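Thread: Newbie trying to understand structure tokens

Hi all, I'm a second-year student working on a class project, and my supervisor (Dr. K.) asked me to get a predicted structure for one chain before our next meeting. I've only ever worked with sequences, so writing a 3D structure as a token string is new to me. If someone could post the tokens and maybe explain what I'm looking at, I'd be very grateful. Here's the chain:
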Amino acid sequence: MASEIYNVIDALSREKGIDPQIVVSAVEDAIVAATRKKDKSQENLIGELDKTSGMIRVYAVKSILPSEDDIEDPQLEISLEEAKTIDENAEVGGEVRFLKSTEGLGRISAQIAKQIIFQKVREAERETIYKEYINRVGEILNATVKRIEGPEVIFDIGKAEARMPRKEQSRLESFAMGERVRVVLSRVDKNSKGPAVIVSRAAPELVQNLFQTEVPEIYDGTVQIRAIAREAGERTKIAVMSKDKDVDAVGACVGMKGMRVQSIIRELRGEKIDIIEYHEDSVVFAEKALQPAKVSRVTVVDPGQKHLEVVVDDSQLSLAIGKKGQNVRLAAKLLGWKIDIKSEEEKRQEVEQQMASLVTQQATPLESVPDLGEQLIQKLNEAGITTVEALADMTPEQLEELPGVGPKTVEKISIAVNNYFSSLDAGQAPAAEEAGASANADAQQDESLSSEVQETGQTAEAEFAAEADEAAAVHTQGQTEETAAPEVPEPEEPAEEKQAEEK
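---
Reply by user tm_fold:
Sure, no problem. This is what the structure looks like when written as tokens:
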């Protein structure tokens, strides 16, 4: 029959959910520590609890050596000869035990023993709780509100207490003492103060469990929950699909007149829930995930990086983005893709910018047309015309509106541009690299003039004077018709001629 002290130990072990032998060991270690404190001894002591009598004995243990000459520490070692006086079967290498007196331990020794027992029991209790809950992370637990400590709520979950930090709570919820709620076991932290069991009401697993409870089709596997994205207290998006073509997954979750989903919304204190039909095609799934907004088109930007571009009507942009970006943020979580949302107007402007950039990259500078001449190119640039393409798009009337451009200059521009494009069609590369030169060599008329200018190093003003003289000579001979555009740029009309034309 077990002693009274052992019965107390057994009851304590059942209450704490720990092995009774752990408590027994704690009691034995406590009495050993108290004895060592009383005797101020460094002996090797062990304790022993007699289950039947309830007596706790303390023994000093010494190692057996061949002779007294081999002994270095008399408190820990004993010779074989002396050991045989205590135990006839003693052998070298063995141990012999001496019973120590536990009388007169006193109040201090008892206090030390009490602290050791409590410490050992707490350590065993923590280890038991850790092993109990570490493999149940993500599980739904029924908990009772035990107390509220500032922003944290402490729950009783059966064998342990669990706490719910503020970030694991829904902003819509408040709790009363003794209230029973369902919580998700979020994690178990093992630390020096013992395992901290953390529970949550903000985890997506809570919504999943509520749907499994309320929707029989989900419980039996006919309808599957493929993805959940949640912002607790605000909105949840849940994607479902049916394994049976005759069962509507969304309809099963909503229930008749919305009874099933309304029951879950009440449990979540009014949190909004969007139920979406899952689709394997990411483009189609994205269109559904952005509901209630209507999507115009979805484009896969980068399949490897999982990047989508979604274009919506201008009136649907704010709805697609949602309050503070919530709708698109939840949709991105649900898909596992990055989503860029643009309105039709934004997309149109983007395309126009891309086209303008492409045109700019392909634009040809005016210097590529040698027949225009340096002075004329300068005037055109000052008027904002810097490319051949822009010049070719202008009408004669538009050209005559430019400062210092008369009908003859317009005719010259027309011939130069036509010759330039004709040379491109014939496969002749324009002399773009010589755009900075003031004149090109003309095989028939001006080759000597160009050579002379290059050899003598005439200044830009001298070149302009030579061109003006050449133009005046042509005008004196009565030349009225230009049959071909010379390759050397024609000098600008003299000031007198310009004034006459403007008048």
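A couple of things are worth pointing out once you decode it. The chain is about 40% helix and 20% strand. The first strand starts at residue 44 and ends at 49. Feel free to ask follow-ups in this thread.
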